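Work through this:
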Amino acid sequence: MRPASTAAAAGQRSNLVAYLVLGFGVVLFALPVWLAFVGSTHEAGRIGRGDLPLLPGGRMLENYAASWERGGSLSFASPVRDLMWHSFLMAMGVAVGKIAISILSAYAVVFFRFPGRMVAFWLIFITLMLPVEVRIIPTFEVMAQLDLINSWAGLIVPLIASATATLLFRQFFLTIPDELLEAAKIDGAGPLRFLRDVVLPLSATNLAALFVILFIYGWNQYLWPLLVATGPHVETIVIGIVKMIGPDSATDWNLVMAASVLAMLPPVAVVVLMQRWFVRGLVETEK
């Protein structure tokens, strides 16, 4: 019995260390979020003096209402409600556009036989080697020549091509048995019907997982909207928060922090609502 008790004690110590490390990670990542929330419930002067407590104050509703309605005291600040709506439209456009293009390109590469098929795939794959910063100047030049600066098309279209999503869909499509394709052909199903009735239902969990990732990717975009969104009608929440920050004496830090907390809510809601599908899409390898 002694060896068994020794092993149990060692297992408990191992679990304790794991919980301590996990708890430290949670505190490390959650503390800035908590401080932002606490700051959004106090007056701006207290934050400017560096006298920020660890407990919320009594101005939560007032600060959040002011941030939602007018953004901040600076004349060029936009209401957070408008900024979040713009970010939602951009995130949805980027996520849906990336999924649509990626699933069609992967479907063509896997299920169609045409000259240069693998060359086309590797050309798509090679774009992963090019960081966004390398492509952003020529992309901006193209958008300027097409007169798409400060427009929804210019904001969304350059971001919807995704080599990563194409690669992931291709790897999944390769696991679909050939017997399903042959059965669909015997039933008289064409390529579009096979895609609609067979491939898309089998890809549901993968679609959900990618949607979560791509929605957050689109929501958090900063560099491209900073270049393209030059007017308030397409300004996103990330850019709006930056514009709310001016000289220290003119910045309502409580409203900035309230806007930051509000900006976190939609991505968190998407992850929470789609958590089950998201996890299944990441861990499932067989259908």
Remarks:
- DSSP finds 15 helices and no strands in the chain.
- The mean pLDDT is 84.
